[in-house]
Amino acid sequence: MAEYPSLPSTASTSSSIAAGSGSASAPVSSTSFGTAKSSISRKKPLGLDISKSILKPTRAAPGLPSNGNGITPKDGNGIIGGGGFVSEADMLREEIANLQLSSKSTNSSSGHSLSLSLPDSPINANHSDSSSTTNTTTNKEGGSTSTSTSTSSSKKKGDKEKKRSKHKDKDGEDLVKDEDLEIIHDLGAGNGGTVTKVWNKKRNCVMARKLILVDAKPSVRKQILRELQIMNDCNSPYIVGYYGCFPVDVHVGIVIELMDAGSLNDIYRHNGPVPIEVVGKVAEAVLHGLMYLYDVHRIIHRDIKPSNILANTNGEIKICDFGVSGELINSIANTFVGTSTYMSPERIQGAPYTIKSDVWSLGISLIELALGRFPFTDNQDNENDNEFEALSDTEEDPGPEHDFDPDATLPLSTQRPKLPPADTTKKERRKSKGVSLAGGGHTMSILDLLQHIVNEPAPRLTSRRKTFPQEAVTFVQDCLYKDPAERTSPQDLLASDWIVNSKVTQSDLKTWALSTVSED
Ligand SMILES: Nc1ncnc2c1ncn2[C@@H]1O[C@H](COP(=O)(O)OP(=O)(O)OP(=O)(O)O)[C@@H](O)[C@H]1O
């Protein structure tokens, strides 16, 4: 088992991310983060090898400082010149920012409906708006900013971004083209398609490409691509960067920033429960992302869950897969009967989506990360139904630390079905996730679960095995009021004690993220 770096002794002087935690952060025990890697030795699902992707790039984006082997010079902590680690994704964004500058004189209204731009790096975002959310960039900026101002100038920023959108490179070419992408390996699969790590040979960097099967008329596919262009305008350190989209046969290909630690779903399933302090930072990042989408673009995410929250080994946490394209949602809904088990009671009952529905889904996701299991489970016979044990590629007994929590609330039939390895066929996966039920044996399970969500008390952040900080318990409870009117708003949640009093630094998050990525 690889040893992971414990927290650097400079943790207290490195960037402080938390809102209101601009003061020196207390050193965090290395057991919380640096050595958080579970003792479970578990093979990754087939095709999920994200461990060596970005950290040690072998090729650098052109025009950026390199030590000759593609690795940007850094000190022992991966900090560059006292600033933050520069991942390939960051380097790409730098390059794209340069391209965008140099393409300002280029006429981008060539009638090409799919012209692309890439999001600025958080660094650039920060420079353009010092009051924006900046938790990933405080190393560079030398201090943290208040969350209460996180979206105060978002409108202005959105306008600025719009002006900058739809750029091509200086030669007038789309910045990301399907033919420039070489497949490296699969990253995972969802209900709608598969995600692959790709090498962009033209841009010299790695990216993630999501292929979504859209069995629709070409005109509908074109409309989907048009709608996806709104992602072009998103520019937030809490939203996974969007690089472009194009039609691929009956698929729509979407190219996005590679998050080399994977989804929070992958992370807890491979490493066990996420340390509660990190869960707090996940909450903070998701809330910032939700507020950005809503305040700047009037978008409600609609699908917050651990597999849509991604992390990278720079310690950044971002959300992806928001409901930007109504046509895409419709097309996928026609293909897959999708019902999310993270859905709020009011949504299950047919009320329209509001940002409070996303808050509910966040609450459920936070419990799942902190307990290392989906919150709705059985309170009997569950030792034999441990999700960890059930993974077919488990190498060792996970041990008592990962037994199902006895505080579960639902009959066995409604337990969250186990995920198959990543290479499982789409059909099997849909069935096993229990969200696509047509003709499957899980129909009653999901209906029972939905009924339970509507009729029974909301889950709580409690466990007989662990004691969670009261601030965290209260926060989660505030997310899970069944009446959306009572549920706390994202803005108020960001001002809550758990978020404001967090001592976790960017450096801590980076140490934690690195510890979750196995070296094999
Ligand atoms: N940008 C990314 N970088 C790295 N891995 C990614 C990225 N996007 C997705 N993945 C991986 O691919 C998996 C599948 O993602 P996808 O969005 O297709 O489905 P999902 O969110 O897991 O499930 P669903 O279809 O139910 O929403 C994720 O769980 C994650 O492991």
Automatic annotation (TrEMBL):
On the tree of life, the source organism's domain of life is Eukaryota
Extent of Basic and acidic residues compositional bias = 156-173
Tagged with keyword Transferase: yes
The Protein kinase domain extends over 181-499
Q: Which UniProt keywords apply?
A: ATP-binding, Kinase, Nucleotide-binding, Serine/threonine-protein kinase, Transferase
Question: Which source organism?
Answer: Kwoniella shivajii
Query: What protein name is recorded for this chain?
Result: Protein kinase domain-containing protein
Bias (Low complexity): 1-34, 103-153
User: Any keyword Nucleotide-binding?
Assistant: yes
InterPro entries xref list: Kinase-like_dom_sf, MAP_kinase_kinase, Prot_kinase_dom, Protein_kinase_ATP_BS
Looking up Gene3D superfamilies in the UniProt record yields: Phosphorylase Kinase, domain 1, Transferase(Phosphotransferase) domain 1
Q: What family does the Swiss-Prot or TrEMBL record give for this protein?
A: Belongs to the protein kinase superfamily. STE Ser/Thr protein kinase family. MAP kinase kinase subfamily.
Family annotation (Pfam families): Pkinase
Q: Which SMART domains match?
A: S_TKc
Region of interest called Disordered, as start-end residue ranges on this chain: 1-85, 103-173, 390-439
- Which interval of the chain is the signal sequence? none
Tell me which residues bind ATP.
Answer: K210
